[in-house]
Write a structure and sequence with these properties.
Blueprint: E1 2-10, E2 21-30, E3 33-34, E4 39-42, H1 51-57, H2 61-64, H3 70-81, E5 85-88, H4 91-104, E6 116-119, H5 120-127, H6 135-142, H7 154-168, H8 206-223, H9 228-234
Parallel strand pairs: 1-5, 5-6
Antiparallel strand pairs: 1-2, 2-3, 2-4
Helix pairs in contact: 6-7
Length: about 240
């Protein structure tokens, strides 16, 4: 299974108003493992960034002036993403910009080049309703360090999102029963009478319960909320 985690930076918020992609960063996951086969370009948008966007990404017109234009990297991008499942946080935003860039080149929309798109913002809202689900909030929730992130950058954010996605979906690659297998084979002997020994239950002492609660409290503090142990304890 080949997956690509993708992020972009742009000159503003609205591709219909002429805003352009100025950076694209992708990291590759193969069978849920980072391969190091990344794709990253700064792009000359042939226009200035809006003041608000510049404050977010810090990529000045001067810095981008000698970088390739989107048309120069479009074929390489399409080859890189071809047939993969693409993972994006708030996918409509990035797809809107990528589709606008492809449209300028008379190229089919982004989704026609890939196997499918997963929006981790939608996933996060389903998993954590009513909570903040920005990339920074998810990094805090899943213990992914983003201390080195002072400005937004497409490749850095794609790397962070890859770690967040793997944490969010960790339970999905657990072993499962093959429900299509036959219940029993003819050559398997099933004993009719099985003697089960008496089950002895040892209850925790008050001191042990207190030590357990202290350990759970430490885990809660590390994840800045309820740890998985605390959540399991409440059910």
């Amino acid at each position: 299974m080949r997956q690509i985690v993708l992020d972009t930076e742009t000159t503003g918020l609205n591709p219909r108003a002429g805003d352009r992609v100025i950076e694209i960063g992708c990291v590759e996951l193969l069978n849920r493992r980072l391969t190091g086969n990344n794709f990253h370009y700064y792009i000359n948008p042939e226009r200035d960034s809006e003041e608000g966007a510049l404050a977010v990404h810090g990529l000045t017109t001067g810095f981008l002036s000698d970088k390739p234009k989107f048309a120069e990297i479009a074929d390489e991008l399409r080859d890189y993403i071809s047939g993969a499942e693409v993972i994006i946080h708030n996918a409509p935003f990035d797809l809107g910009f990528l589709d606008a860039e492809f449209q300028r080149l008379s190229v089919p929309p982004f989704t026609e080049h890939v196997h499918g798109v997963i929006d981790t913002l939608v996933q996060a809202k389903e998993m954590h309703p009513g909570k903040r689900n920005s990339l920074d909030a998810l990094c805090d929730r899943y213990g992914v360090s983003n201390a080195h992130r002072t400005l937004h950058g497409a490749l850095l954010d794609a790397e962070l999102l890859a770690e967040v996605y793997l944490s969010m979906t960790r339970g999905q690659n657990s072993l499962t029963m093959d429900l299509g297998a036959p219940a029993a084979q003819a050559d398997i002997l099933v004993p009719e009478d099985i003697v089960i020994a008496e089950v002895i239950v040892l209850h925790a002492s008050a001191e042990e319960l207190a030590e357990h609660e202290a350990a759970i409290a430490i885990l809660d503090k590390e994840v800045r909320g309820q740890s998985l142990w605390r959540q399991a304890q409440s059910h």
